[in-house]
Amino acid sequence: MGSLSLFRGTSCFRVSAKVVLVAACLAPSVLGQSDSGADKNKPLTPEASVNLRSISELQYSPDGTRLAFVVTEPAKGAGRKRHIWVHDKQSSGVRQFTYSAKSESAPRWSPDGKQFAFLSDRGEEQQIFLMRGEMGEGIALTKGKRAVKSFEWSPDGRQIAFLAPNAKTDAEEKKEKDKDDAHVADKQDKRTRLWLVNVATGEERALTSSTWAIDELVWAPTGDRLIVKATDRPESDEHTDRIFTVQVSDGSAKPLIAPRGPFGALRISPNGNTVSFVGSRDDGPEPHDLLLLPMNARAARNLTGASLDRPVEDYHWQKDGSVVLVAANGFGSLFVKYSQEGSKQDLAASPTPTGGVAIAPGGTVAYVSQTATHPQEVWLWDQKSAPQQISHLNSSWEQFALSAPQYLRYKSFDGLEVEAALLRPAGASSTMSKLPLIVLIHGGPTGRWSDAIEPWGQLLVTHGYAVLYPNIRGSVGYGQKFVESNRGDWGGGDFKDVMAGVRNVIAQGGIDNNRLGIGGWSYGGYMAEWAITQTNDFKVAVSGAGMANLISEFGMEDHPAGDEWFYGVPWEKPEGFLNSSPFIHLKNAKTPTLVLQGDADTIDPLGQSQELYRGLKRYGVEAELVVYPREPHGFHEEKHLLDRLNRILEWYDKYLKGDEAKRSSEAAAK
Asked: Taking the model in full, what pTM does it have?
């Protein structure tokens, strides 16, 4: 999925969508924050572009005096570390709260605010750690040879409910050690269970069967039961999750509702009378609307479908029964409040929240915001005066000259209006020498480009390219009908939207139509592959983790239910998959193509890029396949991230600026 970031991520609720010393620092509140540079005109480099922190998981303490959040550090070595930071109400800045050679996440204060829990992978597996008071070392509350996925405090603070599979047995470990470890798919998979741990004693007990899979949990305010998102058919490749209540006393489960399609972000109203979740309008393709389910009802009410019609990315219940939410809207976001009666009110925070939100008991709103030229930071808004920025975690980016997007709208072949963003080098205009143009396609297809820093495009601008980001049909942020408009039609209307955008930008002037390139990751990689089999207008292409054969992709990928929404299943309806697969048209391809792939990718597996590369070789197309060991769908390792960016720049330069580009331009002129 895209968000002016080519490398597919997910919003909070997308279902598709891989020695710890904890101390409250006594250093100044700006400790660890970036120093801003005096020179704000430095060109962005690949090395600098990966030095970007991200901010998530905002959590207020019960009294509202402290705000905790997670900062994901830039990649170093084999991955990106995460640490917890804190803002104290009496201070003006933020300070790092946890320090570790590993990572910490999921900050959670106890209901009385006297204890602080979090997740850390300090040992072999991720566990719940507990701090009592403001100083000292975090102590592991859970133990075992299995990782804790998530957790929540009970309302009385005596227990913590958490999600984790069964631990490996000694016999299983011995089999692994002896290389006698054949695995029966589905039947021997370890499913995530719901557990309780006593905070005082550390005693654990499982509440749900090992044959179920539990994905989310939330406590009822009474503390006698939990609400969970779960399935008793975890081996199925379809959407089989339902919402259940689980009794704390004996683990008995009662189904509440079986939403159609994917859903998530399960929560409960303060009075415990209503369960809420972000669900599908009908049956997919992704969660979109906020739905409310009264505990005594059999059907949920769609709160936002008619009045908002935008995908909900984060939301929070208020004590008065109102709901505050953030929704995607084109390249931007909407900040909205719904009263208990259902009336809608736009909230006037500026800048608008574009990430996580937390709301203190007194009404102060903490949120993450960013733009295409300003990276993520934390803001506070008292709902009376202007919001104030309290963090400067990415202020080192102030030294770089980033290109601000020009937003444009154009009509596609059928009259559908498409929104896009265009980046140009500083000082470039339609009257100057013409620029090469790169079109970048977001992942998804149910993703979007948004008003956020996108390093691939900013680096291309630094190298003298114009960059076009079209939110083609199927993108989120334009209403459910727009999302559904490419169902069963990948490579059809969406590709025509791309080409209409290219023609529109060329018509504005300043673009060399003989020096066009295309690129993308995931679905964006697929669109690059499709483009080179349909037109020779693009002189160069980059496909990252794409899909060459939608039939074999369905059989190899994790969680194929999303593709099933678009095309059904290939055993019954192979024609749609086949006709939208680039590999059957590869004999038409002539465009030099760089293919990038992680060998541990289970979303769009390695075989897809191998099928593409093998076909391009057969037909004599200039191509390179670069495989990155250990990398999943989203890359983690520092040297791989840099290598990928450098290869992308070199590939575009070679065919749009080098001798090959000159020969191509001269041939076109003749």
From this structure: 0.92
